[in-house]
Structures are given as structure tokens and as C-alpha cells.
Amino acid sequence: MERLSHIVVMGMGEPLANMDNLLAALEVAASKDGLGIGARHITISTVGLPAKIRRLADLGKQYHLAVSLHAPNEELRSKIVPTNDKTGLMENLAAAEYFFEKTGRQVTFEYVVLSGINDEARHAQQLSALLKGRRAHVNLIPFNDVEGLPYRRPTTEALQTFTNVLHQSGISVKVRKRKGSQIDAACGQLRRSSLLDP
């Protein structure tokens, strides 16, 4: 029997919007009577709620934090991430910096790459400028094509150019491997496929 080694809290609503219950659940998961998984093996993924990120930082736990950026400027992020109008890109970056200062844990920034929307070299340059000098890592997530949605997966060339720009600016970056798309089981596909079924 395989032992569970890591937990990533994401994809089931905003974790930090339900923070008290989230923390209680993670305490159980970390306990010897629970799953016995240390805080350093638990990732909390958030769309970005600055006040909650700061509260999490103040707890001093060693959870890993992943913040979904998806855009390198306020205008574009507000189009892609509706909550940005209330929270703000710069406020989230400041909260992420606070998290690092309090915990010493490098923050991961998630960036779903959408063809023709946020995948151009100028977007990569803007993102590099935002993150320059910060202790941060970027996960580039090529969009998985989903029937009925207007977004498209970036070309290999666009993704490589984007990655190169970040590398050349000294930004730690990794492209997430694509898994399960051939059976509509990649990120975002399964639920959408189910909703479309008659």
C-alpha cells in the first residue's frame, strides 16, 4: 500500500476563503493520528486573498504557498481573474513577499498560458520585471483545450520564448507537464466534459 506523501489544496473553491476549516483539516492531516504529513509537504494554492495570505504567514507554519497570477499587469489580470478588481495584483505580490519574510518559504506563482492572450514576449518581460529581485518560482501551465471555451493552448514556440525571457531575467521557472489531456482528464477538462454531457 502506497503512503500519501504530499497534499496540494486547490481546485475545489478558494482554500483561503474557508481558512479556519482549512487549517483545522491540515492540522489533522499533519498529526500522527492523521496522515502524518509535515507542513513542508503541504501546498496551499490560492487565487490571491492578500489579507488571508498575511494571516497565514503570521501563523508561522511551513506550508508552501502557490499564488495564481495568470497575468503580468492589473488590466489583463482583471480580465482573466475576476477577483483581481477587489484584491489587486500588487497587493498579492506584497502579501507573497510578506509570507516569504515571515516563513522563509519561497512562493510559487502559477501562470496559465493562454494563446494570444497572455503568452507574448512582452507579457514575459512584464512578468520578469514584476518578480525581479523576489524569492519566487514560476510554474507555467499551458492551457488544456476544452470544447466550448474560447481559450487555446499556446504554441510550442510561444511557450519556449516565454520561458527563455524569464530564464534570461534570472527568474526560476518550470513548465508543467501535460498529463491526461487525451482522455479529457487534464486540469479543467474533466468537470467541463461532464457539464457538457447530455
Task: Give the overall form.
Answer: globular
Number of domains: 2
The Cα radius of gyration reads 17 Å
Distance between the termini: 38 Å
The helix-strand sequence is EHEHEHHHEHEHEH
Q: How many strands, which pairing sense, and closed or not: the largest β-sheet? A: 6 strands, parallel
Mean pLDDT: 89
Task: Describe this structure as you would to a colleague.
- With 198 residues, the chain is an alpha/beta fold.
- The protein has two domains: 1-71 and 87-105; 110-193, pyruvate-formate lyase- activating enzyme.
- It contains eight helices and six strands, in the order βαβαβαααβαβαβα.
- The protein has helices spanning 19-30, 50-58, 74-80, 84-87, 89-103, 121-131, 156-168, 189-196, and strands at residues 7-9, 42-46, 64-68, 107-113, 136-142, 172-175.
- Helix 2 packs parallel to helix 5 and helix 6 (121-131) runs parallel beside helix 7.
- The protein is globular, with a radius of gyration of 17 Å.
Question: Outline of this structure?
Answer:
The chain has 198 residues and is α/β, with parallel strands linked by helices.
Which features characterize this protein?
8 helices, disordered C terminus, 2 domains, pyruvate-formate lyase- activating enzyme, 198 residues, alpha/beta, 6-stranded parallel beta sheet, 40% helix
Describe the SSE topology.
Elements: E1 7-9, H1 19-30, E2 42-46, H2 50-58, E3 64-68, H3 74-80, H4 84-87, H5 89-103, E4 107-113, H6 121-131, E5 136-142, H7 156-168, E6 172-175, H8 189-196
Parallel strand pairs: 1-2, 2-3, 3-4, 4-5, 5-6
